[in-house]
Specification:
Elements (H helix, E strand, L loop, with lengths): L4 E6 L2 H4 L1 H16 L3 E6 L2 H10 L6 E2 L2 E2 L3 H25 L4 E5 L6 E5 L2 E5 L2 E5 L4 E7 L2 H8 L3 E5 L1 E3 L5 E4 L1 H11 L4 E6 L17 E3 L3 H6 L7 H14 L4 E5 L4 H6 L7 E4 L1
Parallel strand pairs: 1-2, 1-13, 2-10, 5-10, 9-12, 13-15, 14-16
Antiparallel strand pairs: 3-4, 6-9, 7-8, 11-12, 15-16
Helix pairs in contact: 3-4, 6-8
């Protein structure tokens, strides 16, 4: 197997179930041990919710996006960096790997910009302030490359700061897609809780094993790509347009699928340029 750079977007059920988490990280460790460069990007919505609830900090959702006050952002950082990131790093290192915990703020890996959001009020578009919610403005992969060259696994939380130093929480899928593109990743893998994209969501036999980014918009229009799969596919599109060679959706509840990918088996849904 030739050496590849693999970026894995980790989240969802594969992160909240401790037994499954250990198995996923074991598979990721085996990818690294087989000679591949591996980067992990993670979110942590359930953990953010838990920390905010414990702190009795209210956080409203607008169009599916968490409105994040400066106070709430402090707890978002606490959840993603202090809890999720450090735990993933500890589990990987316990396997004999050399994982390093980071966020987009470290080494200015990701520079953020405040998200401008419009919502509909009485049938009219109206600007709404989401607070410390951001989008990726640019990526500088220099620190990631430095770590990979020295045999580390970078584990990156989806937080970044703007040019003035203000911190922002960024959607994990979008964050990962931009980083995968900037790294020119050979494989960008989004872990989710389904086997891939299905033409009929109720029929597992209709899985689409491969499609090009040109086909994505048509599948959104016909409703094949819907709900939570939309941002994941958008993330794959961002990655490929940014320079990644391939992208894919893989079932994170079946960690063995990660290892099957290296044998070029048909696993999940692969997106090509």
């Amino acid at each position: 197997m030739s050496k590849s750079l693999i970026l894995i977007k980790y989240g969802g059920n594969a992160m909240t179930n401790n037994h499954l988490k250990k198995n996923v990280l074991t598979s990721i460790g085996k990818l690294r041990s087989a000679g591949n460069d591996v980067v992990i990007v993670h979110g942590g919505g359930p953990f953010i919710k838990e920390v905010l609830t414990e702190a009795k900090v209210e956080s409203e959702f607008i169009d599916g996006q968490r409105q994040t006050t400066p106070e709430a952002f402090e707890y978002v950082q606490m959840a993603l960096k202090g809890k999720v990131n450090s735990h993933l790093v500890s589990l990987l290192n316990a396997q004999g790997q050399r994982a390093v915990g980071l966020s987009g703020q470290d080494g200015q890996i990701v520079t953020a910009k405040k998200r401008e959001h419009m919502t509909m009020v009485n049938g009219k578009p109206q600007a709404v302030d989401l607070g410390r919610v951001g989008d990726v403005q640019k990526v500088n992969p220099q620190l990631i490359h430095l770590l990979l060259q020295n045999d580390f696994i970078p584990v990156i939380a989806c937080i970044a700061a703007n040019e003035q130093g203000e911190g922002f929480n960024i959607n994990g899928d979008m964050f990962a897609g931009h980083v995968a593109g900037a790294l020119k990743a050979d494989r960008y893998i989004v872990l989710t809780d389904v086997d891939g994209l299905l033409r009929d969501k109720d029929d597992p036999s209709t899985i689409i094993n491969e499609l090009s980014i040109k086909e994505l918009s048509g599948l959104v229009e016909t409703g094949v790509i819907q709900g939570g799969m939309i941002p994941k596919m958008e993330s794959c599109q961002i990655a490929i347009q940014g320079g990644a060679r391939t992208a894919g959706i893989v079932n994170g509840t079946k960690p063995e699928q990660l290892l099957q990918l290296t044998g070029n088996e048909k696993v999940g849904t692969k997106i090509i340029p």
